[in-house]
Design a protein that fits this description.
heterodimer; A: alpha+beta; 2 domains; 11-stranded mixed sheet; 13% strand; B: alpha/beta; Rossmann fold; 5-stranded parallel sheet; 9 strands
């Protein structure tokens, strides 16, 4: 027989009130845990994704949109930048690596990104199997040249002119390295091929580029970042896709082609243009100067991914605070409910308290029994709430994955959860003090008398 | 022979609603030795229960000494009185005062818990067997007859082998047959364990079963 036995018996005797108050604490804790977990998980994922991307350069517009598109494979591309900008950055001594990125197609909703074989090494992405695709600048220039010839050919045809003819071009193999999530969710393996669909998102009526399949030559190791959800192809093969060479024609004939073509223009790079360039600098000291230089120019805009993400979370953070405040209020209401429930039960428990006192229980022991009962309710509610919070996170992952491409590990335990349990214990102790004081003051002789 | 209980110049009064003091207890002297079995008799409202509460240290007198095994309980702090009561005084109530959420065995163990914190259940089981409840250890009070409930209360009062057992009208809630059985049981187990028994009653039948009967008014 221990104090714990007495407390357990008391809780069982008031099973309904105990259950309801425990559930209310559990709900408050579950909500808090879910908010904290999702917020921290998303922040970690986003910050983790920006590691290595010291600066990104793209078309002038929204820096956040540029970062989301380039680093996180989210949102649409703000536009394209001319290839000479890339060449200039690659030649700049302050730049250690300038990796071009072009987007415009997808495979089952996963973005296809045209880039160079420097991508993995520059940003530290390891291969889990296979090798990187073959890439050469000569092949890329040849692809640009062929794309321009196709553009001229089409313009001439549309204007009834005789085509000037074009040189014979030898395409390099269309190869791809795919992210870990893509491999896991699509089942694609090294040696298999896939066909791209037009546009950044999977739609049932999307045009399929059946004439240009890619062969998978490598699968990236999982990173927990947006890279897991990308298919990386050699940049020159990006310009072999039918339609990626006709942007100049679209520009000329935009008024006759309608809004659908306009959307294509927004998403697809022009020949000799790319969506963005991801930079690694020779030294962080060059960052600010280069940033100002690029932004002062007319062709492109630079953005710091880490800064943009911090800005984004400072906005989202206000919503989190409101949700957390709500959760804390629910917790306080639960604490008051516990206090009221135990306090009200004191009238019917005074005889039991008097009996315990007559058996030798000191006032302090009686006080402790009541406080520990409230603490137990809150602690059990807290533990159930933490479990419930993780279940909510697991359930929310489907939505998170669809919205952001990221998921939060539902089974990871954060130190803040220990604080939440400690908070529950404090809440329980505070809730129990009022009823315990009433129990403490119980007059023994008065309540031991035979009931009439 | 050393006294187990000694009362000297004990006084207790209550202030009534009209402000007057009502003298409830006024005892010049009372002394019980080891193994005594005394019936203290008095009419309802004569202060019998108050006297037991004073001896148990549940209430404090206005004046006087209460010596239990030579310890003056009136001089102890409240917490010390609680500890002393748990270890040295067994209390049997008229209305049993069992905790309804606990089994018979748990009720007896509760008596042990505050005396020494011991969880050893051997003596509790043995006592319940002695009072005839060996097969009802895990029954809750509401599933026991009232006679059985009072037997649980007897086992609880004796679980710490107290030198002094106080019984407040222990048969008042029982029918004649059960009352006689319970009374005989209390007297037998107290005699077997050499516990000093002070029983208060206004029941003539109970009085007749005791050799030593002291009217409360004779102590004044």
């Amino acid at each position: 027989m221990t104090l714990f036995t007495i407390i357990t018996k008391n809780m069982r005797q008031r099973a309904l009130a105990t259950t309801l108050t425990t559930v209310s604490v559990a709900l408050a804790v579950a909500l808090t845990v879910a908010i904290v977990h999702i917020k921290r998980g998303m922040e970690d994922r986003f910050q983790q994704s920006t590691v290595g991307y010291e600066m990104v350069v793209g078309a002038k517009g929204s820096p956040l949109q540029l970062v989301l598109n380039t680093v996180f494979n989210l949102d649409i591309s703000p536009g394209n930048i001319p290839w000479p900008v890339v060449e200039k950055l690659r030649a700049d001594k302050r730049v250690k690596a300038a990796v071009p990125l072009s987007v415009g197609d997808n495979y089952h909703g996963f973005r296809i990104i045209g880039t160079t074989d420097e991508f993995g090494e520059a940003f530290g992405y390891r291969l889990a199997s296979g090798r990187w695709f073959n890439f050469s600048m000569d092949a890329l220039r040849d692809a640009f040249s062929e794309a321009n010839e196709h553009a001229h050919e089409r313009i001439a045809k549309e204007h009834g002119l005789k085509p000037i003819g074009h040189a014979v071009h030898h395409h390099a193999a269309s190869e791809a390295v795919i992210g870990a999530t893509v491999a896991h969710e699509t089942g694609l393996r090294v040696g298999q091929t896939f066909i791209a669909a037009h546009g950044l998102e999977a739609t049932p009526d999307a045009e399929q580029h059946t004439d240009n399949p890619w062969t998978i030559v490598g699968i990236l190791a999982a990173t927990g970042t947006a890279v897991d959800r990308g298919l990386y192809i050699n940049l020159d093969s990006f310009y072999h896709i039918e339609g990626h060479e006709v942007r100049d024609v679209v520009k000329i004939g935009a008024s006759q082609k309608g809004p659908q073509k306009k959307e294509e223009k927004d998403n697809d790079p022009d020949p000799g243009q790319v969506s963005a360039v991801a930079l690694k600098l020779s030294s962080p000291l060059y960052a600010l100067g280069l940033y100002r230089e690029i932004n002062d120019g007319a062709d492109a805009m630079a953005a710091f991914p880490a800064v943009e993400i911090r800005k984004l979370f400072s906005i989202v953070g206000n919503i989190d605070i409101i949700l957390l405040a709500q959760a804390i209020l629910i917790g306080i209401v639960a604490g008051v409910a516990i206090a009221v429930s135990i306090y009200n039960s004191m009238s019917e428990r005074r005889r039991e308290i008097a009996i315990l006192r007559a058996l030798g229980a000191r006032r302090g022991v009686i006080f402790a029994i009541v406080v520990l009962e409230a603490v137990s309710i809150c602690a059990i509610g807290g533990v159930l709430g933490i479990a419930g919070g993780h279940v909510i996170v697991a359930g929310a992952n489907t939505v998170l994955h669809r919205v952001s491409g990221f998921t939060v590990e539902p089974l990871s335990f954060q130190a803040v959860e220990l604080l939440i349990i400690a908070g529950c214990i404090v809440l329980g102790a505070l809730s129990g003090i009022g009823p315990a004081a009433r129990a403490y003051r119980t007059e023994v002789a008065e309540h031991l008398a035979p009931m009439t | 022979m050393a006294s187990v209980l000694k009362l000297r110049q004990l006084r207790k009064s209550y202030r009534e609603a009209d402000g007057n003091l009502l003298d409830v207890i006024h005892i010049n002297q009372l002394s019980l030795t080891h193994g005594d079995q005394i019936a203290l008799v008095g009419q309802s409202g004569s202060g019998k229960s108050t006297l037991l509460n004073l001896i148990a240290g549940i209430q404090l007198p206005d004046a006087g000494e209460i010596l239990v095994n030579d310890t003056d309980v009136t001089k102890l702090s409240e917490a010390a009185r609680d500890r002393f009561r748990a270890a040295n005084i067994g209390y049997i109530f008229q209305s049993f005062n069992l905790l309804q959420g606990f089994t018979a065995l748990e009720n007896v163990l509760l008596g042990q818990m505050f005396a020494n914190g011991s969880n050893g259940g051997d003596r509790a089981v043995q006592l319940l067997e002695t009072v005839g409840l060996g097969k009802r250890l895990h029954h809750k009070p509401r599933t026991l007859s009232i006679g059985e409930q009072q037997r649980v209360a007897i086992a609880r009062a004796l679980v710490n082998a107290p030198p002094l057992v106080l019984a407040d009208e222990p048969t008042a809630s029982l029918d004649a047959k059960n009352g006689a059985e319970v009374l005989a049981l209390i007297r037998r187990v107290c005699a077997d364990g050499r516990h000093t028994l002070l029983l208060v009653t206004h029941d003539q039948q109970v009085m007749r079963s005791f050799k030593s009967v002291i009217p409360l008014e004779d102590l004044q």
